[in-house]
Amino acid sequence: MENNYLFGPVPSRRLGISLGVDLVPFKTCTLNCIYCECGKTTNLTVERKEYVPVREVLDQLSAYLNNEPELDYITFSGSGEPTLHSKIGEIISFIKENYPQYNVAVLTNGNLLPLESVRKQLKNADLIVPSLDAASEEAFQAINRPHSSLVCKDIISGLIQFREEFTGEISLEVFIVPGINTTEKELELLKTAIQSVKPDNVQIGTLDRPGTESWVKPASDEEMKKVAARLEHVEVITDFNSRKKVASFSEDMQQEIMTTVKRRPCTVKDLADILNSTVAEINKYLQVLLEENKIECEQQNRGNFFKAKK
Ligand code: SF4
Q1: Residue 229 and residue 93 in one domain
Q2: Which pTM does this prediction carry?
C-alpha cells in the first residue's frame, strides 16, 4: 500500500478545517519533549533530507485539492518536525502557485530557524506556529531534551531573525510544565525572549492528556493564570472540545478506535497502522475519547497504551 502523507481534514480550534501533511516518519524530530503526545522520539536528528518522496506528496495533494475541498488551512504537522524535510519549501510553493485559495500553516518547534535555508523555505507560508517552551539552556534541556547540537539561545536568535524576514503571521506556542518553566527566573527569561521575537500572538497551554513521561503533570488553572499575567499579552488555551462540534469529525473513526481498544490496549502508532490512518489524526480522536472518559492511558515500556474504560 502506498504511504499516505495527508491526514484529515481535521477540525482544529485555531485553524478551522485543516488538511494535515506529514512529511517525516513517525517520531523523527530534533527534540524529545517530555510532554510529546506522540511518545518518545525514535529518530533524534537534525539531518535535513527528503524523508518522504516529494513527488508522491505533490501527487497526493493534487489528487485531493483538484476536488476543491472546503478547507481553511493546509497544515504541515504530524508526528515529527516538518522542517527536517529538505524540500518543504518546494511543497509549500507548489500549493501556493497551484491552489492559491488555500492558506498554508507550518507547526514547527522552530529549532532549525537559525538556518537561512529553512527560513527561506518557509517564506511562502501564511502562518507559522513555532513553539518556545524555554529561554534558558537548563529548562530547554529539561523540557525538550534536544539533539546534542542544539543550543537554546541560537534557537531564539533564529526566531528573531525569522520574524524580521517573514511577512506572514507568527503565532508562538509555549507549553507550561509546572516546576520547570514556571519559576520566576524562567518566566522572566521567557518574557524577554518573547518580546525580542515579537510574534503576532502567543498562546500558552499545558498537558491535557498523557505525555511521554508520566510524571509530567498539567498546570492548574490558577497556575496558568499566574503565568499568563507574568508573561503578559498571552492567551491561555483551555477548550479542547470544539472539534466535536464540527461536522467533519468522523463518528465512524471514533467508533473504530473504540472497537479496537476494547479488544486490546494499543499505542497511537498501533492504531494508526491498524486503521490505516496517521498518528496525528488518531491523536485528535484519542484526545476527545480521553476527555469523555471513554478510554484511559497506561504507560508501558513500548510507550503509552490506550484502552477502553470498563
Ligand atoms: S512535541 Fe513536537 S517538537 Fe516535541 S518531541 Fe514531540 S513532535 Fe518533537
Answers
A1: yes
A2: 0.81
